[in-house]
Amino acid sequence: MIKTKCLRKTYHLGGTDIHALDGVDLHIPKGQFVAICGASGSGKTTLMNMLGGLDQPDGGSVEVDGHDIARLSHNALARFRNESVGFVFQHFNLLARRTAVSNVLLPLEYRRPKPGDHKKRACRALNDVGLGDRTAHRPAELSGGQQQRVAIARALVGEPRLLLADEPTGALDSQTSAELLELLVRLSQQGLTIVLITHDKEVAAYARRVITMSDGKIVSDQMNTEANTKLAS
Ligand code: ADP
Ligand code: MG
Description:
alpha/beta; Rossmann fold; 6-stranded mixed β-sheet; 4-stranded antiparallel β-sheet; binds adenosine-5'-diphosphate; binds magnesium ion
């Protein structure tokens, strides 16, 4: 699903070079649930932006779901982001004036042609994350955990092949955060490829594989044999 080779990204800031990504080689097979761990500033978000086609590398290559990201035209890239990838962020990024269902159907509104059943699909996506009875609520009328579920429904409504989540539990309490992670585990069991970015080891423990970054490099890559045991208990 994901293949990067010697991926580099350097920011130039006030005369110094910051190697946000310093030669990242990464291979993630379809259906894997991977956590990318590492201290603040280690390059996690930069890596996620490359995988999701939100930013272009300075060197190396990145292939996601068969697309060579660096070679896509502006339009093809927009289409790739809309169709192949679902994004979830720390602060939910919902539109305050729209209802839950209207937030969720947003990605489908950008599709050409726009699917005629977009409302139905959005309701189904909300139902899948346990919010079938909250479709008409606005973000301010929902708890943090519910808002993040709406964001996940929005990420999944277009049936992406890859879910990229950057610190999705960063603004949630531990109980809510555990429920959300259990939802991600279930989604991965249904075949979705998930890349979860976190600086929190407890959060990473839900993933099958834990990759640790430091100074723009991968410094460890381990299978987590105890993943999902939290669900059984
Ligand atoms: P993380 O998500 O692991 O906290 P980031 O990928 O956001 O790390 O950042 C990696 C490094 O690149 C940091 O040192 C950060 O300060 C730097 N950086 C990120 N984005 C920019 C930018 N737009 N301009 C300059 N430096 C940046
Ligand atoms: Mg970050």
